[in-house]
Design goal:
- Helices cover 66% and strands 0% of the residues.
- With 209 residues, the chain is mostly helical.
- The chain has two domains: 1-112, Orthogonal Bundle (Rna Polymerase Sigma Factor, Chain: A); 135-209, Winged helix-like DNA-binding domain superfamily/Winged helix DNA-binding domain (Arc Repressor Mutant, subunit A).
- It is globular and about 55 Å long.
- 30% of the residues are buried.
Length: 209
């Protein structure tokens, strides 16, 4: 499908930073059709629907909350300003995660890979803030595990890291990952196999220290 739009970056930024609207049960295709018919409020719903998974993907790729937020913002702006180029050959989610993951990788290359990732954890987008007060010891343990996983992911080749994160954190199927990265399903499976093997080795070494 072809969607036509004329919104300024300022308007789009308002969408990205807007308060979440009520839950909507309409499909992405229906929302995009509504937008084509002139209903611009559907952009708020699309952002609300996918901001969590987009942040998880960006944060896994970058290992830093502030950078991940920048990547998500940049990704959403690119998507919302180029909706006319979306033809519906893949799902809106796979298209969005491709743009966000590429934005995250570009940002990581621009700022340089950090020699040492910060040990403090970043907030889980799906987690309620009040939970931090219930079990401080467990939170510290989970923070350590997240930091270890972030460091391990950073050691993977970029192609394997992006494939792994899109599948695990982006919750995309093999076929959807293949669509996002424009590779075969077999290549997705191969990258995931080697990524998991390397992560097991790296994590085993770190946990045993």
């Amino acid at each position: 499908m072809t969607v036509h739009m004329s919104r300024s970056v300022r308007d789009i930024m308002a969408v990205v930073t807007a308060t979440s609207p009520p839950v909507c049960h309409r499909s992405d295709e229906q929302l995009l059709a509504d937008f084509q018919a002139g209903n611009r409020h559907v952009l708020d719903e699309l952002f609300r629907r996918y901001r969590g998974v987009a942040f998880r993907v960006a944060s896994r790729l970058l290992g830093n909350e502030a950078d991940a937020l920048d990547a998500v913002q940049e990704g959403f702006i690119k998507v919302l300003t180029h909706l006319e180029g979306f033809e519906g050959r893949s799902s809106f989610k796979t298209w969005l995660l491709r743009v966000v993951s590429n934005a995250a990788l570009d940002l990581g290359r621009q700022r340089g890979r950090r020699d040492q990732l910060k040990d403090e954890s970043y907030n889980d987008p799906e987690r309620e803030p009040q939970a931090a007060f219930f079990d401080a010891g467990r939170d510290l343990e989970l923070a350590d595990l997240r930091a270890i996983l972030s460091k391990a992911l950073a050691q993977l080749p970029e192609a394997q890291r992006q494939t792994f994160v899109l599948h695990v954190d982006g919750e995309l199927s093999y076929r959807e990952v293949a669509q996002v990265l424009k590779i075969s399903v077999g290549t997705v499976m191969s990258r995931l196999f080697y990524a998991r093997q390397k992560l097991r080795t790296i994590l085993a070494e770190r946990v045993s220290v």
